[in-house]
Amino acid sequence: MKGGVLLQIDIFGWLNGILGWVSGVLSWVLGIVDAVLAFVWSVIIWVWDLAWANFFLLFKAIVFPGLVFILMLIIFDVWFTRKVWARVQDRRGPFHLGKYGGLQLFADAIKLVAKETIIPEGAKRWMFRFLPGFLLVVVLLPFVFIPWSSTWIIADLSVSLVLVFAFLTAVPVIALLTGWVSGSKYTLIGGFRAANNQFAAEIPLIVSSAGPALLAGSLSILNISQAQSQLWYVLILPISFVTFLVSGIASIGLVPLDAPVADSEVIFGWRTELPGIYFTMTYFAEFAKQVLYSALMVAFFFGGSYGVPTFPPVLNFFLKFLVVLFFFIVVTSSFYRIRQDQIVKYSWKYLMPLSVINIVIALIALVYVPGLAGLLVQGG
Amino acid sequence: MSPDIGDEAVEIWFGPQHVSAHGWAAKLTVVGDYIVECDPHAGYFHRSAEKVLEFRTFKQGGLVLERMCMLEAFLAEYPYISAVEQIAGMEIPERAKVLRTIMMEASRIHSLQFWWGQLSAELGLFAMTLWPWVDREFFLDTFEELTGSRHAASFSTPGGIRYDFTDKVRQKLLRAIGRLESNLPKFKDMLLRSPTFKMRTKDVGLFNAEDGIKWGLSGPNIKSCGIPMDLRKDWPDPNLAYDLADWEVPVYENPEHPGQSDAYDRMVQRFMEIETSVSIIKQLLDQIPDGPIVDPKARAKANRLPAGEAYGRVEGTRGITTVWLKTQDKAQTPWRAKIRGPCFASYYSLKHMVPGSTFADFVVVFGSLDPYPGWWDR
Question: Searching chain B, which residue's CA lies closest to the CA of residue A262?
Fold first, then answer.
């Protein structure tokens, strides 16, 4: 054979092969996509089944007594507080935006969130950013245990009373830390004042909630509120209710006992240096606590969801909650601020003995007043 | 900081950016919760009013003075005008004397209402701030009806007054006083009998009468120690009509600590001041004589004053307010004007009163002295 080997290319075969190769690659890719999609779909199906199976729980956690409802309630509380305060002070309160100024809070929130985040030079940056959000989370968590009715409760725990106070004890610690890491003398003073308030008010607060727990024979908030089907505990524990209210105000830091954030003395206490969004979080946390304590008071002292028998239980609870919240706001709008050493003095000298005395009186009454013990339902 | 206080002491600047410190700043040395040293600083509100007065004619000078303290504008402008009138030897029409006195007392009431609202805000009860401020609006309406301005009234002028009293002004003034009188018992109840108010003000900012005089306090601050020191009686001004009314110097002496005064006593004292002012106004309103409000010939004398010096003084809301004026012959402007504001003394007396009180009480001590930064930063 002359010449070299002729390189022969079967051009059509080669072209044909490309098609086959392309289709092979495509089918391979499609197979992968298909497998991924099938996996994703199976995950979706699995989550959906799970959600459908736990639909009620999810709905409760996210929508009705859960996050959305609580946030709406806090927004309402801010508006309600401002309106009641305005009325007490001979003003009209917000009325420009929305019906009766209902949208004012949203405008305020947008303004605050849009503000520049300024972190002071002396501040510990990481903690300064972390603490306000953490505070809001800690304050929102106890709402899990608020029994709006026997069914509309997100979770029940046999020791939910203890757990709620465990969460709430973290609040002044966060306040103290925020004041500390802000790197200013005024915030530090405010933080220590918050700790001081808690030091004064926590024991009366817990002791006055021990009365309902003793009468119901349970540490679950649901059981305590459900045990009042025959008798509201405020009738035999009126002093405990008052001590709970007062020490609750001290614990939150509202006006007569608001030394931690006394604006004329320490500018804004531990919140002085917080910029826009962080301030909004602490501001919301304060109102969330107010809502929380009002709901707890209804559950502990005002018969939970019992009331007008024809009403739905949630409505009963909510109406009583509104009344207690109104009372709460009126109390906080009508006294002069008390100095922090006076807060400690009066808490330890009067609040604590009173909260203990009422339990003793209630127990004696249960023994000696005929028929009273029969009205108590043990264990819910 | 004194060297003997030690390492525990912390220096805190109260102001000038503090919420309750608008236009002033005090350096506090704090040990624990207690203030051991207070160092008030003046100068954040300085407008060089005394120098400005040297460039204003005698008719314009009153306008500078009333801007020293807008809350008591009718009273604040008077010492300067009184000094000008003394140097010129002017005769004031009777009607102008009575109207001046009435409006000065109305200004005093309005200033006191503003003060106790502010003290309540500093004590955390904002309701008690706004309630008296609603009543105060009626006095402001009266001022507006009379002079066209709510605050800077420029009412007095050398030789008389600028604006005449009409029936409408009289009605508005009577309405303001009627509303004040009907609400005053309520306010007294809410302040003086409120347990939380007592807790915050009793034995806070306590000082002796001797110390008060030593530090130069005057007005309600010293009267609440039981010393009847009142220029309206002690130095009867021929150009004012306080002698037409029948009144006593309001003096409150707390039986719990005679010769001493705390924040609570100063509150009581100022309520008595309001009642006295109301009674003076009501008596004088029936005795307004007819006649001119200003003598144009006398007023023309203020264009060029002879050489001389005079000391114009008035019992202001916050204490004795004086202007010392020295002129050269045929002068159009003062050679020198020296203002003595009542609050300079009360501001610097914080040095004496504050040490020993808690950090939270500082603002109460400060507020109970009724200070106004314009009076110490001239």
Answer: B124
Separation between Cα atoms, residue B174 and residue B282, nearest integer Å = 8
Q: Residue A243 has which token pair? A: 């001590």
Distance from C-alpha of B146 to C-alpha of A356, rounded to nearest angstrom: 63
Q: Is A256 on the interface with B (CB under 8 A)?
A: yes
Residues in B closer than 8 angstroms to A265, CB to CB, are 20, 359-360, 362-363
Q: What is the pTM of this model?
A: 0.84
What confidence tens digit (pLDDT) does each residue in B283-334 have? 999 888 888 888 888 888 888 888 989 999 999 898 899 999 999 888 888 9
**Chosen from B11, B13, B18 to mutate, greatest number of chain A CBs within 10 A:** B18
Closest to B213 measured CA to CA, from B197, B226, B198:
B226
Helix axes A185-216, A160-181, angle to 10 degrees: 180
Of the candidates A132, A163, A170, A171, which has an alpha carbon nearest to the alpha carbon of residue A146? A163
Q: Which residues of B157-172 are buried (b: 16+ CB within 10 A; e: fewer)?
A: bbbbbebebeeebbeb
User: Which residues of B make CB contacts under 8 Å with A?
Assistant: 10, 12, 18-20, 33, 120-131, 134, 194, 196-197, 199-200, 358-363
Q: pLDDT per residue over B184-207, tens digit each?
A: 988 888 888 888 888 888 888 888
Q: What is the pLDDT of residue A130?
A: 92
Residue A28, pLDDT > 90, answer yes
**Cβ within 8 Å, pair B131-A90:** yes
CB contact under 8 A, A342 and B363: no
Q: What is the homologous superfamily of the domain B46-341 according to CATH? A: Cytochrome-c3 Hydrogenase, chain B (1.10.645.10)
Structure tokens at B156: 């007095």
| Closest-CA residue to B221 (of B231, B233, B209) | B209
Q: How far apart are CA B350 and CA A335, in angstroms?
A: 27
Give the CA-trace dihedral at A290, A291, A294, A295, to 10 degrees. -150
Q: Where are the domains of chain B?
A: 46-341
